[in-house]
């Protein structure tokens, strides 16, 4: 771990999902021996006067005081969840998405809550999550709970979507690492019914040789897993090769998993279906935390 990636970042907004995200992030930081940076952005544009002029200083002081209260509460939550973790705070002004995207350049992971109003009074956390997933420079975890509950599972298998793309390979690495660290099993899901082939006129035609295609996809999954199983022999792996839509299969697995890991985009086995749509569906509808692996910033 380089010095630049020695912390996990969590965004908080004063609501319970944000506090839960802070507790979850603190626990993960303790597991990894990392520090924690808690971010609350003062989105002053919401209160700006006509012409873009900021409000009077007393109004800003009240906003800042409320932000400090939110950060103090989050620090207290993390101290209870993981007492030994070093915690820093950041309270910038501006768009929370832009702030989190910027600090993600030097983070091991960004964590945000998956329900509630989130940072914006007029924008749901789902929209915030979508934007952060699209712009972060490190893995993003959206903390989703079991359907109809506030239960963020800590038991069950890790589940990873495999499609053969470079980001899918990074997702595999992250999933194996998480499974090994938490002594959990791993389910590797490869869905292949979305495979189509285009003729020279660009018209998709249905492929009916399912058995032949299934053999090819089974080999692809085995090849992708082989090296990681050698590196992490302690992780029990279940292979799930299904003829179905990848997002639907992964959403179903999320109801019994403790974490689902996917790349932010990709093609490979999901030819014709960008994984971006799968990761976004999971961020909005999964029943467990979702880790979306993002391309690292090239320096």
Explain the overall architecture.
The protein is built from eight helices and twelve strands. The chain folds into two domains: 1-143, 3-Layer(aba) Sandwich (Rossmann fold); 154-291, Rossmann fold, CATH 3.40.50. The strands form two sheets. Strands 3-2-1-4-5-12-11-6-7-10 form a ten-stranded mixed β-sheet, with helices on both faces. Helix 4 (125-135) runs antiparallel to helix 8 and helix 5 packs across helix 6 (210-231). It has helices at residues 16-32, 57-81, 96-103, 125-135, 166-181, 210-231, 246-254, 275-285; strands spanning 7-11, 35-39, 87-90, 109-113, 140-143, 158-161, 186-191, 197-198, 204-205, 237-242, 259-263, 290-293. Residues 47-53, 117-125, 194-208 and 266-275 have low confidence and may be disordered. It is α/β, with parallel strands linked by helices and 299 residues long. InterPro entries: Rossmann-like_a/b/a_fold, Universal_stress_UspA, UspA. Keywords: ATP-binding, Nucleotide-binding. GO terms for molecular function: ATP binding. Pfam families: Usp.
Q: Could you provide a short overview of the structure?
A:
Helices cover 40% and strands 17% of the residues. It is an alpha/beta fold and 299 residues long. The strands form two sheets. The protein has a ten-stranded mixed beta sheet with strand order 3-2-1-4-5-12-11-6-7-10, sandwiched between helices. Strands 8-9 form a two-stranded antiparallel sheet.
CATH class of the largest domain: Alpha Beta
Q: Please report which band the strand proportion falls in: under 5%, 5-15%, 15-25%, 25-35%, 35-45% or over 45%.
A: 15-25%
Biggest sheet record: 10 strands, mixed
Distance between the termini: 16 Å
CATH topology of the largest domain: Rossmann fold
What is the tally of helical segments? 8
Label the overall shape. elongated
Report the CATH architecture of the largest domain.
Answer: 3-Layer(aba) Sandwich
Number of DSSP E strands: 12
Helix and strand composition category: alpha/beta
Write the H/E string, N to C: EHEHEHEHEEHEEEHEHEHE
Regions with pLDDT < 50 over 5+ consecutive residues?
A: 47-53, 117-125, 194-208, 266-275
Number of structurally distinct domains: 2
Order of neighbouring strands in the sheet with most strands: 3-2-1-4-5-12-11-6-7-10
Rg (CA only)? 20 Å
**Oligomer category:** single chain
Q: What's the pLDDT, averaged over the residues?
A: 82
Tell me the name of the CATH homologous superfamily of the largest domain: HUPs
Helix content: 25-40%
Organism: Amycolatopsis thailandensis
Keywords: ATP-binding, Nucleotide-binding
InterPro entries: Rossmann-like_a/b/a_fold, Universal_stress_UspA, UspA
Protein name: Universal stress protein
């Amino acid at each position: 771990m380089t010095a630049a990636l020695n912390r996990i970042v969590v965004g908080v907004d004063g609501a319970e999902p944000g506090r839960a995200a802070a507790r979850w992030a603190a626990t993960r930081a303790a597991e990894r021996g990392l520090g924690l940076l808690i971010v609350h952005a003062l989105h002053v544009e919401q209160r700006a006067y006509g012409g873009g002029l900021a409000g009077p200083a007393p109004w800003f002081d009240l906003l800042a005081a409320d932000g400090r209260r939110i950060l103090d509460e989050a620090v207290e939550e993390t101290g209870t969840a993981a007492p030994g973790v070093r915690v820093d705070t950041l309270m910038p002004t501006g768009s929370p998405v832009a702030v989190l995207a910027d600090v993600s350049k030097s983070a091991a992971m960004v964590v945000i809550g998956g329900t509630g109003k989130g940072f914006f009074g007029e924008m749901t956390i789902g929209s915030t999550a979508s934007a952060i997933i699209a712009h972060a420079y490190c893995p993003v975890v959206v903390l989703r709970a079991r359907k109809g509950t506030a239960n963020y599972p800590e038991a069950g298998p890790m589940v990873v979507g495999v499609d053969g793309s470079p980001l899918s390979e990074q997702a595999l690495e992250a999933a194996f690492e998480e499974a090994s660290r938490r002594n959990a099993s791993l389910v590797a899901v490869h869905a292949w019914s979305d495979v189509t082939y285009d003729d020279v006129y660009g018209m998709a035609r249905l492929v009916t040789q399912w058995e032949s295609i299934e053999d090819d996809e089974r080999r692809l999954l085995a090849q992708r897993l082989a090296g990681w199983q050698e590196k992490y022999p302690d992780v029990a792996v279940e292979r799930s090769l299904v003829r179905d839509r990848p997002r639907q299969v992964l959403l179903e697995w999320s109801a019994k998993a403790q974490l689902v890991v996917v790349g932010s985009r990709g093609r490979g086995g999901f030819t014709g279906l960008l994984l971006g749509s799968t990761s976004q569906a999971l961020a909005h509808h999964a029943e467990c935390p979702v880790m979306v692996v993002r391309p690292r910033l090239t320096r």
